[in-house]
Amino acid sequence: MQSLSSKLLEKAVEQFALLPGVGKKTALKYVLFMLKRKPEEVNSFLQSLQDLKNNIRECPQCHNISDNNLCEICSDPKRDNSVICVVESIKDIMAIEATSQYHGLYHILGGIISPMEGIGPADLHISSLLERAEKPEVKEIIFALSATIEGDTTGYYIYKKLKNKESLTITTIAKGISIGNELEYTDELTLGRSILHRVSYTGN
User: Fold this and answer.
1) CA distances from 6 to 9, 12, 28 (A)
2) In sequence order, what DSSP letters do the residues of 122-163 get, joined into one string?
3) Which run of H or of E encompasses 29?
4) Distance CA 72, CA 62 (A)
5) Do the bridges between strand 169-172 and strand 140-143 make them parallel or antiparallel, or are there none, so unpaired?
6) Is the separation of the CB atoms in 146 and 53 below 8 Å?
7) Which residues contact 179 (CB under 8 A, 6 or more apart)?
8) Tens digits of pLDDT across the chain (204 residues)
9) Which of 26, 48, 93, 111 has its CA 20 to 30 A from that of 65?
């Protein structure tokens, strides 16, 4: 992309281009769009980002993002606190919630075990999950991890840590999800059915 006529414009484009999946042409489109907005609209946009960065926090229980001490899901008395669905990221919670088929709690690992990327069990929120599993009200742990080798490895690692807890049922979402697929890209109908028709986890 050729140099732009304005250094200010060029700098703004460079910042937008830092966003994942955004190239220079798309970044320029975003910047030109913002230039056409009213000053109060741009200020509102910038303020929302600043508020997000300064005030967002991590839920100490499930590691979801939250405006308060506990996230809305963990603090909702209507949720079934006997079931915990284990996911990789916040995007997976959004995908499952969109199905309206699950009403329990969540636990975000913050990724999956991947030796190739230098990510081990200690880099994930596994220890806090094991602590939650010790609570008497927790009866079921659901693995809703990507259908990849790394996802299976992560599930098996946690399963080995939990399998001797007799009062706990360990399940995984049904394999309506194609092998190699990440959860966030699965359609809502397939994902919803996979949650409803989950099966016992055997570590295989």
Assistant:
1) 5, 10, 12
2) GGTTHHHHHHHHTSTT--EEEE---SSHHHHHHHHHHHHHHT
3) helix 24-35
4) 11
5) parallel
6) no
7) 147, 148
8) 555 678 899 999 999 999 999 999 999 999 999 999 999 999 999 999 999 888 899 999 999 999 888 999 999 999 999 999 999 999 999 999 998 889 999 999 999 999 999 999 999 999 999 999 999 999 999 999 988 889 989 999 999 999 888 889 999 886 655 544 555 656 565 566 566 656 677 665
9) 26
The number of CA neighbours under 13 Å toward the Cβ of 20 is 0
* Crossing angle of the two packed helices 188-196 and 90-97, in degrees rounded to 10: 90
